[in-house]
């Protein structure tokens, strides 16, 4: 069972208090987008063995969504950060690169 | 009004650790900019306690303030004062972007009091209740059994627990069973 | 025979004899006994029958690894099957019965299988029961089910209680032997918060039997001293009868505390601990391996360490004459202990060609005959050992000599208990010299910070000597404390000393070239009856992966999970495959370490606390007044209010008619109520709903639809505009939390710059629907707010007083009747309901339930989320195009509706359905079309989504989705009817009652 730090509450939270929300940093496509863009937005998701950005809601706590950078293979967590961003913050990217030198931001 | 009743009408489960439904308490969900001086001031004025920091709570009898999230604070006042308090907040924050809503009747409030009250909570909540790390003045929102709840300590052996009104009976049952099952001898 | 010794038994309190029963026979033991030792003391060697061949089986071990000694324990509400006699502490009044035999333990007809064993080899079930096909269901499976299974399932409800406990520690140390104590000492002195747990009731582990010297004192004295030091540290907690059951991601561990299994008790029987540890040290020791020789499963053949344990801990001699069979020095300790206890050891059979270490020499000095280079060809005896036949280990089993004995103590070496290390991904390496898998410290389970969070200490880490184990354990405790952030000094490690041992010589089969006849009697897995020959057959038949061989043979799949058998089994497998043991690898270790009770997993979640049931302020009244409840999410809502003498169906019909004719009350408190407020709230709601909400006027209400980004309908409800900045959105009962979360998700993660706050106020209000021709009359009688047609028109709301209640009245209708939904604070809800009930008496008031609600709405053709929708239905399917705003550039689902399949004219669409004979269509029935599909199934052209009996119309009514339906009014189609003729049904308008809506507009 994972434990993740809620960046809003500052507490380490058991997975049972969280609600997973899939891949982070999706860009929404609405009316006016092409069929391919919309299809990818709805259905296509990264499934890496390695670094993954994902959405978590502190559902039994503050109710806020936050994002986590996590290795899907080792479960190492490189950082959690508020959801109000379209890309991972610099310090999280640096933390990942320190541990996974070959990793590139997609 | 004589017809006004809390979810469990003050039910008590006495024991080494006593679980008690505390009746109705005025509660206002206040969402807004928690750094706003106006917001902090009206909260302090209504409750008489200091404005809480992240994860904090301050309470004095029925009155208190609890940090619920980065943009939400729970304002506690006696039940009859909740509606006037909402009006006072609305007047004070006129022009700001905020939401103040009376949720007094959507909640149930319990006290869990006794020597091993920490352990009663730790049986039910995935939260670190070690005395070195969970102290008076801290607010924790988490689960009790299968329902959402929040709790804090009003003194070294008393917790105040809040949950939704619809699950008051379940929550009381959990607390009563866990208190009745006795001490773990760990915390 | 096995009997009680007068002299020894360090765990016994001989001043406190206790009595217990086994298969109804009254027996006696002492406080401190396990059930196993007490049975042995009473010469009850035979404790059960094996799973497949029903062979007589006796206790083979003295601890958690025991495969044979499983019994039914207790009675009635305290009955539990499959309890291990070796870990069950004896108490006065204990009742045990043996299992897996018919008719009796001593005479079991199933034992005939043992003579058929040639015909019951590995994979027998897979091979035998395939043909003829129908036989599986009607002959084979019922037969196998009857003979399968170990103990009996309890008949009564569990009379005990259980609980969970959450703990957060720096260092969790599992195992209270000298290694665990030492690790705790190091971590505790360094200042870490330590929890040390031990599965038995006693500290010190095996050292208490073998008594090595530690820090110049006896192990017993050292353990007492160390425990005193640990218990004096405020940062260290020690607990016994608590097993480390599993290790999981990010430092999570489960531990199983048995509070009530060792006698009558108050409080919970088991406590399941959910522990979050920064570091976990597993000092779980090792388990002795059996040796694979013929008839090694006879009662009286035990692990050498177990024989020693029974003698020294419990003062029980398993036999008067014990032959020790070994491939290592440690087993000599058993021979020496027995000899010193005055028992006979006719011979030590050592497979090694040489045995000249301190222990063998000590044995020889006691006059014990030591035979090196020898093995056991077979054990003699029926229901118990009568002797052993000796052969050359290097040969094929020619008998050199028979030695009479009534106990065989075997030792194939020791396997570290690596389960907890492995649960979460810790890797193992093969130690050739010691012939064991041991943890590879370079590849530990990783935590969230990318560092290893489990370490092993002492024997569990492959350090079998006292000195090695203590040094290793101390370092493990110190390192764990440091990794957990402790800053203090651990001081010096204790020093241990014991007899130097010569190396083990691995023996996987005895004798080395054993014939098929011997191999087919050499047991690997005692509980599941897997023999050497079975594993060899599996390899021959191509099950080369250890995981396949395991499943094919069932090796290690019994309740002991192969604690004794796995290593021996995979050694046999690797030999058969001509491969090395490390290349074959081990099967996966999975929690729990030993079985834990199902009830402990449930914890307090039993009976009324099984799951939370949500209650409205009116629920108690409903339950007191005939409510027949149905679950709606976690709520229990009244389906109907049944009066005495009525069926549920009668009650529904009465409620339907009364609400249309007089006055009905519905507890609608469960409907979701969300406040949405802010300068951007209108814009936001225009994105959430398919129709326009920003232009709703203050004081008015509007029905709205919500779609997912896929375009499918997800919720509906009436939205009221409260003031310039504030809207109140009603959701379905099941949707309140979901839609609240949905709104928050979009506000937090997509449009975080929009100024909107949402609050869920569902439970703040009791909401009561006052419905029917007399609805206005009852409200007027209560007085207060003007609820006239003019003052409160249809689809508007007002705040005010009704009677003495603070109320918000919504003039909305889900029934087509004159209807008000009145929200009052939940604390006043019950009083308001009572007031309406009382005031409504003269107007024919009756409460109505959800079924009546459904029928009323279906008569009006109103859709219900979850009936007409199932996650694949879009508004267009339900003829709700009018609710899809054309003025808006965007809303959730809009883009999806442009996708080709969504715009397909061939989608099934909503219609009313009227059976020609007036019957009620079966729910979910399909409309039959011509022809068949590519799978040869009948084509369909629609399905029923809602179907009811309408008491108002005196016939069945239904709605459904039908291909091209709205253009086929009046056409008759057929619906499936399981077990009957297809039902002829006319396609009609969904609105079948008061088509012009005259009743609600009064």
TrEMBL record, chain A:
GO terms for MF: sarcosine oxidase activity
Mind telling me which InterPro entries this protein's record contains? Answer: SoxD, SoxD_sf
| TM spans (from-to) | none
Task: Name a biological process GO annotation.
Answer: tetrahydrofolate metabolic process
The name of this protein is: Sarcosine oxidase subunit delta
Q: What is the lineage of its organism?
A: Bacteria, Pseudomonadati, Pseudomonadota, Alphaproteobacteria, Rhodobacterales
From TrEMBL, chain B:
Query: Which Pfam family, giving just one, matches this sequence?
Result: SoxG
- Species assigned in the record: Cognatiyoonia sediminum
Family annotation (InterPro entries): SoxG, TrmE/GcvT-like
| Protein name stated in the entry | Sarcosine oxidase subunit gamma
From TrEMBL, chain C:
- Which NCBIfam families does its entry note? soxA
Sorted alphabetically, which PANTHER family does this protein's record hold? AMINOMETHYLTRANSFERASE, AMINOMETHYLTRANSFERASE, MITOCHONDRIAL
> Gene3D superfamilies, per this entry?
2Fe-2S iron-sulphur cluster binding domain, sarcosine oxidase, alpha subunit, N-terminal domain (3.10.20.440), FAD/NAD(P)-binding domain (3.50.50.60), Probable tRNA modification gtpase trme, domain 1 (3.30.1360.120)
GO MF terms here are: sarcosine oxidase activity
> What positions does the domain FAD/NAD(P)-binding occupy?
170-421
Q: Indicate the segments forming the SoxA A3 domain, all copies.
A: 520-603
Identify the residues that the record assigns to the Aminomethyltransferase C-terminal domain, covering every copy.
Answer: 909-994
Which domain of life does this protein belong to?
Answer: Bacteria
Q: Which family does it belong to?
A: Belongs to the GcvT family.
Protein's UniProt name: Sarcosine oxidase subunit alpha
Output the InterPro entries linked to this UniProt entry: 2Fe-2S-bd_N (IPR042204), FAD/NAD-bd_sf (IPR036188), FAD/NAD-binding_dom (IPR023753), GcvT/YgfZ/DmdA (IPR028896), GcvT/YgfZ_C (IPR029043), GcvT_C (IPR013977), GCVT_N (IPR006222), Sarcosine_oxidase_asu (IPR006277)
UniProt keywords, alphabetically: Oxidoreductase
- Indicate whether Manganese appears among the record's keywords: no
Keyword Repeat carried by entry: no
Q: Which intervals hold domain GCVT N-terminal? A: 620-888
- Which Gene Ontology terms describe the biological processes this protein takes part in? tetrahydrofolate metabolic process
């Amino acid at each position: 069972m994972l434990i993740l730090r809620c960046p809003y509450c500052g507490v380490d939270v058991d997975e049972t208090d969280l609600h997973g929300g899939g891949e982070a940093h999706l860009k929404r496509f609405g009316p006016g987008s092409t069929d391919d863009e919309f299809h990818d937005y709805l259905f296509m998701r990264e499934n890496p063995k390695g670094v993954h950005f994902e959405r978590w809601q502190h559902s039994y706590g503050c109710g806020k969504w936050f994002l986590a950078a996590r290795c899907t293979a080792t479960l190492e967590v490189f950082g959690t950060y508020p959801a109000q961003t379209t890309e991972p913050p610099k310090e999280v990217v640096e933390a990942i690169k320190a541990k996974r030198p070959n990793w590139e931001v997609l | 009004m004589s017809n006004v009743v809390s979810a469990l009408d003050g039910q008590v489960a006495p024991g080494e650790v006593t679980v008690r439904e505390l009746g109705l308490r005025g509660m206002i969900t206040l969402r807004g900019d928690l750094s706003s001086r106006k917001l902090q001031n009206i909260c302090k004025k209504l409750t008489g306690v200091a404005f809480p920091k992240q994860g904090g709570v301050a309470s004095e009898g029925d009155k208190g303030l609890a940090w619920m999230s980065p943009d939400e604070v729970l304002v506690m006042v006696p039940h009859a004062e909740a509606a006037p308090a909402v009006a006072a907040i609305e007047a004070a924050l006129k022009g700001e972007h905020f939401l103040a809503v009376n949720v007094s009747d959507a909640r149930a409030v319990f006290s869990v009091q006794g020597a091993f009250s920490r352990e009663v909570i730790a049986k039910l909540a995935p939260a670190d209740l070690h005395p070195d790390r969970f102290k008076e003045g801290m607010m924790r929102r988490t689960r009790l059994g299968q329902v959402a709840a929040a709790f804090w300590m009003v003194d070294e052996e008393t917790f105040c627990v809040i949950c939704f009104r619809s699950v008051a009976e379940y929550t009381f049952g959990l607390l009563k069973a866990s208190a009745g099952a006795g001490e773990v001898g760990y915390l | 025979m096995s009997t009680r010794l007068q002299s020894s038994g360090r765990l016994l309190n001989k001043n406190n004899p206790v009595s217990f029963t086994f298969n109804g026979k009254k027996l006696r033991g002492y406080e401190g006994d396990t059930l196993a030792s007490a049975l042995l003391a009473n010469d009850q060697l035979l404790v059960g029958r094996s799973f497949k061949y029903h062979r007589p089986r006796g206790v083979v071990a003295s601890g958690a690894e025991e495969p044979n000694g499983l019994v039914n324990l207790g009675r009635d509400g305290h009955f539990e099957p499959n309890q291990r006699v070796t870990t069950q502490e004896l108490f006065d009044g204990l009742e045990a019965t043996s299992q897996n035999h018919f008719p009796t333990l001593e005479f079991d007809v199933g034992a005939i299988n043992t003579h058929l064993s040639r015909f019951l080899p590995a994979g027998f079930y897979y091979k035998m029961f395939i043909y003829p096909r129908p036989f599986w269901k009607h002959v084979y499976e019922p037969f196998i089910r009857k003979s399968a299974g170990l103990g009996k399932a309890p008949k009564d409800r569990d009379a005990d209680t259980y609980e969970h406990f959450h703990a957060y520690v720096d260092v969790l140390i599992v195992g209270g032997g000298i290694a665990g104590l030492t690790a705790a000492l190091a971590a505790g002195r360094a200042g870490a918060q330590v929890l040390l747990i031990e599965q038995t009731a006693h500290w010190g582990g095996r050292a208490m039997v073998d008594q090595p010297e530690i820090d110049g004192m006896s192990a017993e004295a050292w353990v007492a001293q160390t425990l005193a030091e640990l218990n004096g540290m405020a940062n260290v907690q020690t607990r016994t009868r608590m097993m480390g059951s599993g290790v999981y991601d990010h430092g999570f561990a489960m531990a199983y505390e048995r509070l009530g299994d060792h006698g009558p008790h108050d409080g919970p029987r088991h406590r399941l601990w959910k522990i979050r540890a920064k570091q976990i040290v597993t000092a779980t020791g090792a388990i002795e391996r059996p040796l694979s020789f013929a008839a090694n499963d006879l009662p009286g053949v035990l692990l050498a360490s177990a024989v020693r344990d029974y003698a020294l801990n419990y003062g029980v001699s398993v036999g008067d004459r014990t032959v020790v069979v070994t491939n290592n020095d440690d087993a000599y300790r058993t021979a020496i202990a027995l000899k010193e206890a005055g028992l006979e050891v006719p011979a030590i059979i050592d497979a090694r060609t040489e045995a000249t270490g301190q222990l063998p020499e000590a044995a020889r000095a006691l006059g014990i005959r030591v035979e090196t280079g020898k093995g056991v060809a077979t054990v003699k005896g029926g229901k118990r050992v009568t002797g052993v036949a000796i052969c050359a280990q290097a040969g094929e089993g020619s008998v050199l000599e028979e030695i009479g004995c009534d106990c065989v103590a075997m030792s194939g070496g020791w396997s570290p208990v690596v389960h907890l290390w492995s649960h979460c991904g810790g890797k193992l390496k093969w130690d050739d010299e010691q012939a064991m898998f041991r943890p590879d410290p370079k590849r530990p389970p990783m935590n969230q910070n990318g560092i290893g969070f489990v370490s092993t200490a002492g024997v569990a880490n492959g350090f079998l000597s006292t000195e090695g184990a203590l040094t290793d354990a101390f370092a493990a405790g110190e390192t764990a404390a440091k990794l957990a952030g402790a800053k203090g000094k651990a001081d010096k490690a204790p020093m241990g000393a014991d007899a130097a041992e010569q190396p083990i010589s691995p023996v996987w089969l005895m004798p080395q070239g054993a014939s098929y006849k011997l191999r087919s009697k050499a047991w690997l897995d005692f509980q599941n009856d897997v023999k050497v020959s079975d594993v060899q057959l599996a390899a021959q038949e191509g099950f080369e992966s250890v995981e396949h061989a395991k499943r094919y043979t069932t090796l290690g799949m019994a309740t002991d999970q192969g604690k004794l058998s796995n290593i021996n089994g995979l050694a046999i497998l690797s030999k058969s495959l001509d491969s090395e043991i490390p290349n074959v690898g081990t099967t996966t270790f999975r929690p729990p370490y030993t079985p834990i009770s199902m009830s402990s997993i449930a914890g307090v979640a039993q009976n009324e606390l099984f799951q939370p049931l949500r209650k409205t302020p009116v629920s108690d009244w409903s339950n007191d007044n005939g409510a027949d409840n149905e679950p709606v999410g976690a709520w229990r809502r009244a389906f109907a209010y049944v009066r005495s003498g009525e069926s549920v169906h009668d009650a529904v019909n009465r409620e339907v008619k009364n609400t249309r004719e007089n006055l009905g009350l519905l507890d609608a408190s469960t409907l979701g109520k969300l406040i949405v407020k802010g300068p951007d709230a209108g814009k936001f709601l225009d994105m959430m709903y398919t129709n326009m909400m920003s232009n709703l006027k203050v004081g008015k209400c509007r029905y709205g639809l919500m779609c997912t980004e896929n375009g499918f309908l997800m919720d509906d409800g009436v939205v009221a505009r409260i003031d310039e900045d504030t809207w109140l959105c009603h959701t379905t009962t099941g949707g309140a939390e979901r839609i609240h979360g949905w709104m928050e998700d979009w506000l937090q993660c997509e449009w975080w710059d929009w100024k909107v706050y949402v609050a869920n106020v569902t439970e703040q209000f009791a909401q009561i629907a006052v419905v029917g021709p007399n609805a206005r009359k009852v409200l007027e009688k209560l007085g207060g707010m003007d609820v006239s047609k003019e003052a409160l028109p249809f689809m508007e709301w007002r705040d005010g007083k009704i009677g003495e209640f603070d109320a918000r009245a919504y003039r909305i209708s889900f029934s087509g009747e004159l209807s008000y939904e009145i929200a009052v604070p939940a604390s006043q809800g019950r009083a308001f309901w009572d007031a309406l009930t009382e005031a409504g008496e003269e107007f024919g008031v009756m409460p109505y339930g959800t079924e009546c609600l459904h029928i009323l709405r279906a008569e009006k053709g109103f859709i219900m989320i979850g009936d007409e929708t199932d996650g694949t239905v879009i508004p267009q399917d339900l003829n709700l195009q009018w609710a899809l705003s054309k003025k808006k550039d965007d809303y959730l689902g809009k883009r999806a509706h442009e996708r080709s399949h969504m715009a397909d004219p061939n989608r099934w669409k909503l219609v009313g359905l009227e059976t020609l004979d007036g019957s009620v269509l079966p729910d979910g029935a399909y409309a039959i079309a011509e022809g068949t599909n590519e799978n040869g199934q009948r084509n369909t052209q629609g399905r029923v989504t809602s179907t009811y009996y309408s008491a108002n119309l005196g016939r069945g009514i239904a709605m459904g989705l039908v291909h091209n339906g709205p253009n086929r009014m009046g056409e008759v189609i057929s619906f499936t009817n399981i077990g009957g003729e297809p039902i002829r049904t006319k396609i009609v308008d969904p609105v079948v009652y008061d088509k012009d809506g005259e009743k609600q507009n009064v």
